[in-house]
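User: For my dataset I need records formatted as: sequence, then structure tokens, nothing else. Please produce one.
Assistant:
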Amino acid sequence: MATFLYKLGRLAFRRRHFIALIWVALLTLAGVGAASAPAAGSTSFSIPGTEAQKAFDLLEQRFPGMSADGATARVVFKAPAGEKMTDKDNKSAVEKTVKELKSGSEVVSVADPYAGHAVSKNGSIAYASVKYKVSGMALKDSSKDALKEAAQHARDTGLTVEIGGDALTTTPETGSSEIIGIVIAAVVLVITFGSLLAAGFPLLTALIGVGIGVSTISALASTLDLGSTTSTLASMIGLAVGIDYALFIVSRYRAELAEGREREEAAGRAVGTAGSAVVFAGLTVVIALVGLSVVNIPMLTKMGVAAAGTVAIAVLIALTLIPALLGYAGRRVKPAGEKSKLLGGGRKPKNPGKPNMGTRWASFVVRRPVAVLLLGVIGLGAAAVPAASLQLGLPDDGAQPTSTTQRRAYDLLSEGFGPGFNGPLMIVVDAKGSHDPKAAFTKVGDEIKGLKDVVTVTPAVANKAGDTATITVVPDSKPSAKTTEDLVHAIRDKGADIGQRTDSKVLVTGSTAMNIDFSQKLNDALLPYLALVVGLAFLLLIVVFRSILVPLKAALGFLLSVTAALGAVVAVFQWGWLSGLFNVEETGPIMSMMPIFMVGVVFGLAMDYEVFLVTRMREAYVHGEKPTQAVVTGFRYGARVVTAAAVIMMAVFSGFIGSSESMIKMIGFGLAIAVFFDAFIVRMAIVPAVLALLGKRAWWLPRWLDRALPNVDVEGEGLRTHSSADGKDADPDEEKELVRA
């Protein structure tokens, strides 16, 4: 591995024009593809195998004109104080609004509040339901504008009017904080390298990688049904790992220069050593992201695969474009320890023989390993305590900021019709095999009326064939409440019994039931997913470190950091601690995909730091140093760079906390805090403490396993015999051999 990458690094350095041209061509091709691709259509959301999805599919078959996946809007009206919606003037204003709404080209139907009994008991609130042909994301801007204009015309008459539903769905905005995150990353890079040019390379290559990845996703969005969240996630992860991977190779290149090697030789050795760590770190991230497919939720699978593709691009760019750019830079990239003249280069260091911060910290840890280990574990354990109160769910309009019309409409409907009105359940009765379908429909409705937490059960509405009907059930509690989930299970239990007696099938669907099934499926998949991802990465790390205990320690450390991060997410987004600081207006259940998503992404990122830091220790140990001294050596060369990488990654992830989309905001915060816990507590404190306590046992591997494992040579041992230390040119046939490979 190291020898192959060494040759690749030298080739890229020497053939820099060719390498740069390839990446510019790929970026241009992806950009043209994104610009010329058709606009992404409606993004489908399906949960194969669940009852809610089966009912949804049945509705599309038996009610073909229903537009089951079409957008909906609820235009909610509230009369001025002391008036009612049934007053003549108010009723006239509503009827005009309904007539105006019906004129839309994408509108399927508009339900009149007065004809559909959609007026509250006290007469102060009413609503009109609007059904569209297409989903909210596919709805034309003209249709959305027409909806807003109709509401405004009603407001002009003195009514309070708000719009709920998914018809006003928009692409989430990340806000200016994302730019701030990139600026912070740039500042950290300048401080780390002491050079504007060297600092610019990781940023430039990361932006190129993200540009190719996101443009490719945009080009394929319509064909592969990719949503806007997919590209946001890909850019978030791709930017973070892209900067980090390039950072490690540039840093190793400068270290090789400081040892007196020629620039081409230094580039080859940087890619052969740090590049090997980049490859395996990237593989762990890719495994974690692609592993999301085991959940069998298409949306999650697409998000994971798209982000994994962007990570793969980041790895390839770090291995090829970075050495090419270093070739262009020439002597303007200084050896480690030197700064450019602009940033104070040429001055004599104040304490030339003083150990750096990483050396001093590692020396302290190996002297006090038990105290550091206990303090780190107890601290992370305390942060993880809130995770015991984790409540999962999916956000609805009730989680929107109070400044949005969707949230105000939600509150008005709760005020006028009860909290459960915002999350009605749809019961689908398939009586195709029944000898008396009408009796089956009636029986289902009557039985459900007797259940606890049911407010309203509407009469059954049958299709043209008369073999399938829908019944709407309004719960007494809000959509995200535990009692609503209990009601869904109660209806399903009761429906199974009724179905046997009436030869019919009773299915529960609707957005609330979909959310419940989605959460349940994610919960059921968490342990198998964790076993798959951790198991595969564990095997990979055994190959990298040629040790049993080091990968085991890495996995246990990850569990500590991800549990602590989930505890922090619960404290902020569920309990409301520091919610004002992070602009969290509404607290509530944690998104059901958050635990499994954090497990995947955080595990991949945690293994990044493990590979980058511990390979330096392994390299020192293989080259003859004692175990404790190898720990100190690893920190002397790696701590500064790992610290910079973690700060950069935290800055990039924190930039997404400013998103208007609650899911992106929560993911950004969760990943940022997880990187903090994992990099600064687990990898910087717990890892050296454990390795110091284990000593030589940390690197123990059974002989039979040592013989069976392939030798990937991450430490670059093979480079000692492959090229001389004086940096002479490689064999002329070397290039041809690499190209053929």
